[in-house]
Specification:
about 120 residues, mainly beta, seven-stranded mixed beta sheet, four-stranded antiparallel beta sheet, about 0% helix
């Protein structure tokens, strides 16, 4: 069982930056893959970025070049650096993880553990 706790959300103006963190606990070994998803107002869940155990990263098209996902395996911590934020980036951001071999992409079926989410609001 893995518990995931996100932090770092908040309100920012368009063009600003935020850094999200996700702390994992409860696992007997580090997650193979971790990822960030988001859900905007009235929208479905969208994959933002994923990272595998070796540090290979994948991004959703809407965030490429603006967001950076990273992880520190020794600390079981996942990060999402978000730059050049836009109002359409507004939503609840969720951390996800899996303990089974995976691709490290941005499709939700890969991930079995989810955090409670942190709100990000970008104003124009």
């Amino acid at each position: 069982q893995v518990q995931l706790v996100e932090s770092g959300g908040g309100s920012v103006q368009a063009g600003g930056s935020l850094r999200l963190s996700c702390a994992a606990s409860g696992a007997t070994y580090r997650p193979y893959c971790m990822a960030w998803f988001r859900q905007g107002p009235g929208k479905g869940r969208e994959g933002v970025a994923g990272i595998d155990e070796d540090g290979n990263t994948r991004y959703g098209d809407s965030v490429k070049g603006r967001f950076t996902i990273s992880r520190i395996n020794a600390k079981l911590t996942l990060y999402l650096q978000m730059n050049s934020l836009k109002p359409e980036d507004t939503g609840v951001y969720y951390c996800a993880a899996t303990l089974t071999p995976c691709f490290g992409g941005t499709t939700s079926y890969e991930y079995h553990y989810w955090g409670q989410g942190t709100q990000v609001t970008v104003s124009s």
